[in-house]
Amino acid sequence: METSRFVAGVPVDVTTGRVPVQRLLCPNAGMMTGPGTNSYLIGGKELALVDPGPEMPVHTHAIMRALAGRPLKWIFVTHTHGDHSPGTPALQALTGAQLIGLAPHADAQYQDRSFLPDRLYVHGEQIHCSEFTISLLHTPGHVSNHLCFLLEEDGMLFTGDHILQGTTPVILPPDGNMSDYMASLEYLRTLPLRSLAPGHGEVMTEPEQMISTLIRHRQRRELKIAAALATLKCGILDELVLLAYDDVPSHLLPWAKKTLLAHLYKLKDEGRARMTLPDPASLIQGPDVDAVIWEAM
C-alpha cells in the first residue's frame, strides 16, 4: 500500500474512466479502519459524494474545500456504521444534497440512527446525475442495510465495507448474515465490473479476481470451522475461535468471534450445526451468545 497516497484531507485522483473520481481520506486511522475511511467525490461540475465518514469537522471541511465551489447534489451512504455515515447531517446542512441510502434496521446494533435517507430506495434503482448514472445494489452481509454503488459509465463499484483491500470485512450478526454475504458476493461476480473502490484501502482493478479470492477465503474458513466442530464435538465460541482462527493475532480474536458466529448461524441454517442454550429461555443476543454450546450435525 503506497502510504503517500493516504494523507488525510488531501484529494487523490482515482479516476479509472471518463468520469472524474477523487478520494479523500478521513483522519480516523485505526485497527478496524486501516488508513481511515474513504470518501469519494464523483463528477466534474455537479458532484456526488460516497460516504461522508464519521462526525469529524476536520473531514467535513476537507470535503467542502475539495468541492472548490462546485455544488454537491447527492450524498450516497453505503451503510450506517459510525465510520461511514455520521458526517452526513453536517454535510447536508452545508450543501442541501439529496441523501441516498438505507436506514438501519430498528434492532441493529452499532448503527448511526441520525442517517435518514430522503425516501425509500430499492435494489437496482438508478440515480441519474448530471454527468453520470449510479446504480444502487443491495449487498447485505456485513450489515443488512449495506449498499454498493455502481458508476455505470466506468464500471467502478463503490464497495463500502462489503469488499475491502487487503483484509476481509467482519460480519456482525444478528444484523449481519454470512449466507447473505456470500450470495451478495456471488451476485457481484456476475456484473461487468472494471474496478472496486473500497471504504478502506486502495482502488482495486481486478474485480473478478478479488471477489473470487474473497469467496474462496470464506469457504476455506467455513471448512476450518466445521473441522473445529468435529474436533471438539461440542464447544462454545471461546473454544471454537482458538481452533478455527488459529492464524489470527490474539488482539483480533474478539472481532473474529463475531464472524465465527455468523458462519455458525449459516451452518445451523444449512443443517450442519446445532446450538444448545444452557438456559433455553435466554435470548441469543449480547453476552448470552458466549454461553451457547455448538456441535456438529
Question: How many domains in all?
Answer: 2
SS-based structural class?
Answer: alpha+beta
Number of helices: 6
Q: What is the share of helical residues?
A: 25-40%
The gyration radius over C-alpha positions equals 20 Å
Form type:
elongated
Q: Into which percentage range does the β-strand content fall?
A: 15-25%
Could you explain how this protein is built, in words?
The chain has 297 residues and is an alpha+beta fold. Helix 5 packs across helix 6 (253-269). The protein has a six-stranded mixed β-sheet with strand order 1-2-3-4-5-6, covered by helices on one side. A five-stranded mixed β-sheet has the order 7-8-9-10-11, with no helix packed on it. The radius of gyration is 20 Å and the shape is elongated. It has two domains: 3-205, Ribonuclease Z/Hydroxyacylglutathione hydrolase-like (Metallo-beta-lactamase, Chain A), CATH 3.60.15.10; 215-296, Arc Repressor Mutant, subunit A (Orthogonal Bundle). The chain is built from six helices and 14 strands.
Keywords:
alpha+beta; 297 residues; Arc Repressor Mutant, subunit A; Metallo-beta-lactamase, Chain A
